[in-house]
């Protein structure tokens, strides 16, 4: 039971890999993950990061139903989270760090879906694998998000990100 977050993350990565590794799926994964960290910082409540997995997924789904690119929906969601954080007077350094992380990881992920499939998959994979470093930092510091979420993300980001990188490098 102690390792349930890692088991959950690994199960999610396995599911993603088995059902197909593509730039969109990898990019959505990293962008939703970054939005979860931003949501926890904006509300000042670590547990919100877990809830944001569902919220971020819903934003992606609703965006696609409305024929809006998923990244426009998630970008708007992130902007709302920043406004919430500012209105709530969330600690500036924490909100800024998570906002910049969202911009950086999300930006690379979006670039990944706007370029060629091979380069896009590589970019999205690098962004996701790179997000694992962010997960580890948050896990070690035990701040912003629950350690369980950071652990789950680590177990998802590394295998899924590496699978995307390997696939991109071996595509013909």
UniProtKB/TrEMBL annotation:
It comes from Pseudonocardia kunmingensis. The chain crosses the membrane at residues 39-61, 68-87, 93-114. Keywords: Membrane, Transmembrane, Transmembrane helix. It comes from the Bacteria. This is Uncharacterized protein.
